Amino acid sequence: MSRTALGVLALSLLFVGSLFVGATPLSPMDVTTPEARALIWDSRLPRAFAVVLTGASLAIAGQIMQLIARNRFVEPMTAGTGQSAMLGLLVVSVCLPAASVGLKMALSAFAALIGSIGFFAITRRLPPEEPLLVPLVGIVYGGVIGSAAVYIGFQLDMLQYIDIWLTGEFSGTMRGRYELLWIAGLAAVLSYLVADQFSILGLGETVSLNLGLNYRQVVLSGLVVISVVTGLTVVTVGAIPFIGLVVPNLVSRLVGDNLRRSLPLTAMAGAGLVLASDIFARLVVHPFEVPVATVIGIIGAAVFLWMLYGRAQHVS
Amino acid sequence: MIEVQNLSHDIHGAPILRDISVTVPKGGVTALVGPNGAGKSTLLSLMARLIPRQQGRITVDELVVGESDDKDLARRLAILPQTVHAASRLTVRDLVGFGRYPYHRGRPTPDDRAMVEDGMRLFDLLPLAERSLDTLSGGQRQRAFVAMTYVQDTDYLLLDEPLNNLDLAASRALMARLRDLADNKDRTVIIVLHDINFATAYADRVLVMKEGRLCADGAPQDVITETLIQSVFETDAPLRTVEGRPVVMV
Hints:
The complex is a heterodimer. Chain A has 13 helices and no strands. In chain A, helix 2 runs antiparallel to helix 10. The longest helix of chain A is centred in the N-terminal third of the chain and has 36 residues. Chain B has two domains: 169 residues, 3-Layer(aba) Sandwich (Rossmann fold), CATH 3.40.50.300; 70 residues, no CATH class. In chain B, strand 9 and strand 10 form a beta hairpin. The relative contact order of chain B is 0.17. In chain B, the strands form three sheets. Chain B has a six-stranded mixed β-sheet with strand order 6-7-8-3-9-10, with helices on both faces. Classes of the chains: A mainly alpha, B alpha/beta. At the A-B interface, helix 8 and helix 9 of A face helix 2 and helix 3 of B.
C-alpha cells in the first residue's frame, strides 16, 4: 500500500513540476497572472495530461501484449503494431486527405489491429523454447511494414510526416489537440476491469480453456486495447519506443504478474517515466527541446540491455 | 460419467484416434497407458475440449463437449495440461485462486478464498503461498497447478502425464493425493501415465491404447500381462507379481 502512495506522490510532484518547465519562464509565484493562467491552461496542463495518458496507456498496452504473447520481450512498437498504425495513417492521409482526426485515428487503430493479428499469427508457430525469436521476428515484421510506409512516403513526397509519426514528442501539444488521448486512457482503465482474464491468458491457451475462458475473445479484446492505444499515440504524439517493454518488466520484477495488483503500478510507472523524460527533454538544451522519444530511446535501450543480461544470469 | 462414442481424429491427415468408444463411470482413478504416439494425450485433450472435435461424440454427464457452454464445463471437468513452461511471476496463492475463476469470474467471494486456502493446505502449499512460481522447483510448481485444478471443484479431474519431470518422492506423493481425492472427495481422476508400474500401483482401471485404438480395458491385475506388454509396447520386459500386483521389470 505504501508503495502505491509513494508512487502517487512522486507522480504528483512530477506532474506539478512539469507545469513550470518550458521555453517561456514560469514560476509558481506567477500563477495568478492572466498570462500565466493562459499558458498553463492552453499549453502546460494539456501537455502534462498528454504525457501521463501516453505513458500510462503505452505501458499497459505493452503489459497486455506480453501476456498474450507469453513473452517478456515484445511491445507494440517492436511487433509491427506501431508501424501498421503508421502505414494506416499514411494511407488515410493519401486517400482521404480531408478525413477528420477521429476517422484517421479509427482507421489507424484498425490498421494496427490487423498488424497485431498478423504478428500473432506468425509468432504462434515459433517454438516456445526459443523466446528471443519472437521479438526478433517482430522487429523484422515491423521493419517490413515500416519500409512499405517509407516507400509510399518517398513516392508521394510525404517522408516528413513519417518522420513526425516515428518520433514521439509533445512540443505541439495544446488544448484542443490532444483530447483523443483520453480514449487511450479509457481503454487502459477498461482493461483493469478484465485484469484477471488477461492474467489467465499469461498462463497459456490450455489453462485459459480449462478455466472456461473464451480464449479467442479475450485475446482479441486485448489486441483491440493495444491497437487503440498505439493508433492514438501515433496519430497525436508519434511513436514512443521501449515504454511498453521496459515498464512492465520492471513492475513484474517488483510485484509479480497478477495484473489486478500490477496494472495500477504499471500505469503510474509508465506515466512517471515519460513525464520525467519529457521534463529532461525540455531542460537539456533549454530553451529548445529534444524529442522525448529520443530521451526514452536512450534510457530504454540501457534498461533493455540490463534486462537481457539479468535474464542470462538468472538462467545459468 | 464420461461417455466417448465413435471418436476419430486426424492431425494433418495422419490418423491419431480410430473409432474410440469408452465409458468412464464416476469415481476412481483411471489410467491411460500406451506407447508414445498412441493417442492418449489427444484423447484426453478432446475430452477436455482443448482441441476441436472432428468426429464422434463426447458427453460429460448431461453436458456435450463442444456444444455445452465452456463455463459449465469448467465447473464439471478440469484438466492439468502436460507442460506448463510459463516462467510466470504469479504467486502460488494467485495461481490456486484462479481455479475459482469459473465461479466468480473475477470477483472472489469469502467462500472462494476459503476454498483456495483449503486447497493450499491439502497440497502443503501454505508455506509457499506468497512465493512466485518462477522461484519454485518443478515439483512444487506442478503441485501448485494440481491444487489449482483441485479448487476448481470439478467432478472430473484429467491429468496429462503429470509425473514428467517429477522425482520419485514427488511422483508418489502426487499419486497418493490423487488416490485420496478419488477415495475421499468423490473426484473422478483420469490420468495419462507413461510408467506402467505407477498405473498398476494407483489406478483402479487401465485403458491401454496403441496406434489410435483402445486395445485393453480393465483392472490392472487383469489387463497388464507379459503378452500385453509385448504386443503393445513391443518390448520383452518380464512381469512379476508382487503383493498381488503386476510389476514390469525394467
